[in-house]
Amino acid sequence: MSGSDARFMALALSLGRRGQGQCFPNPAVGCVIVREGRIVGRGWTAPGGRPHAEPRALAQAGAAARGATAYVTLEPCSHHGQTPPCAEALITAGIARVVAPFDDNDARVSGRGFAMLRAAGITVTTGVMASEAGRDLAGFLLRNEVGRPWVTLKLASSFDGRIATATGHSQWITGPAARRAVHGLRARHDAVMVGAGTARADDPTLTVRDMGARRQPVRVVVSRRLDLPLMSNLARTASDVPLWLCHGRETDAALTEAWRGIGARLLPCDVRAGQMDMASVLRELGAQGLTRVFCEGGGSLAASLLSAGLVDELVGFTAGLAIGAEGLPGVAAMGLARLEEAARFDLIETRDVGGDVMHRWRRVQS
């Protein structure tokens, strides 16, 4: 891998991140077109998933694309969907070389895009910044591989791990800067997910505010009985911002009709031992096209996801105060008897956020 290949691919990856949370079910891809060492075109997947990164970059490059190199963060698509194949667009534009990290694991592509390019006489180089691209596209790749989205679990807690006092008072444990950072994280995910208890207790809107988001994340509430208040903020905004309710398959027909009538999407999922089966919930969300889900609790939902091995990343915001043992824990009981039963995560980032500490952890791969 040459130094210039790494430099231009790093730029393409940074562009691709601009599409995170904005383009599901499509991947958030970046593209940079370079001719004789000069950038002549840049693009990333547009909100809603179209146009793709490559045609946007080619449109900017114009005639300068002929004989140029295209740096793309994922194999160009080869199939006709709602847009023509990106591989075909690169060929038509006269691109001479394509640099990418790896094959797209979408069964509709899976090497066919590269094959089209090579058949047209275009040089294809792969393996450039593959690990970095794998992290950025983890949700898309995971959904294609196992059928569920990437799950980030966020907890905002006191120094002693409590998310509220014994009376349920929690506003605010962390400061304004940490809360703004949470809105930024919401904006980079396709959906924000909470449990029914959190929806009832906090009456949240779960929207991204003051961040200039062009596309709001889907609000997902996991509620076995659909026993959620119909006079809540979520209900009031259901026709304006997508609201998906994951519920048990045996639900009161009147509640089902009421929520559907105000604009919510209802997703029946499996129930196991009287609790929502979170593997079933995530499979359903994956089937709906979601690639990245940001879970904001509460404790029971967090425990269910962790117990089932369904959390890929942890994001914690820790404040400098102690609430005491009578406070509400961030994660409900999990029934662990030995430490080796607990999932391990690697620390990947820690930083100060307005006086609170943000720490990010990624699941240890077995």
UniProtKB/TrEMBL annotation:
Zn(2+) binds at residues 52, 77, 86. Pathway: Cofactor biosynthesis; riboflavin biosynthesis; 5-amino-6-(D-ribitylamino)uracil from GTP: step 2/4; Cofactor biosynthesis; riboflavin biosynthesis; 5-amino-6-(D-ribitylamino)uracil from GTP: step 3/4. GO terms for biological process: riboflavin biosynthetic process. The active site is at 54 (proton donor). NADP(+) binds at residues 156, 172, 198, 202, 298-304. Binds 1 zinc ion. It holds the Pfam family RibD_C. Gene3D superfamilies: Cytidine Deaminase, domain 2, Dihydrofolate Reductase, subunit A. Residues 3-124 form the CMP/dCMP-type deaminase domain. GO terms for molecular function: 5-amino-6-(5-phosphoribosylamino)uracil reductase activity; diaminohydroxyphosphoribosylaminopyrimidine deaminase activity; NADP binding; zinc ion binding. It catalyses: 2,5-diamino-6-hydroxy-4-(5-phosphoribosylamino)-pyrimidine + H2O + H(+) = 5-amino-6-(5-phospho-D-ribosylamino)uracil + NH4(+); 5-amino-6-(5-phospho-D-ribitylamino)uracil + NADP(+) = 5-amino-6-(5-phospho-D-ribosylamino)uracil + NADPH + H(+). Substrate binds at residues 170, 186, 206, 209, 296. Its cofactor is Zn(2+). Its EC number is 3.5.4.26, 1.1.1.193. Keywords: Hydrolase, Metal-binding, Multifunctional enzyme, NADP, Oxidoreductase, Riboflavin biosynthesis, Zinc. NCBIfam families: eubact_ribD, ribD_Cterm. In the C-terminal section; belongs to the HTP reductase family. Converts 2,5-diamino-6-(ribosylamino)-4(3h)-pyrimidinone 5'-phosphate into 5-amino-6-(ribosylamino)-2,4(1h,3h)-pyrimidinedione 5'-phosphate. PANTHER family: 2,5-DIAMINO-6-RIBOSYLAMINO-4(3H)-PYRIMIDINONE 5'-PHOSPHATE REDUCTASE (PTHR38011:SF7), DIHYDROFOLATE REDUCTASE FAMILY PROTEIN (AFU_ORTHOLOGUE AFUA_8G06820) (PTHR38011). This is Riboflavin biosynthesis protein RibD. It comes from Roseovarius lutimaris.
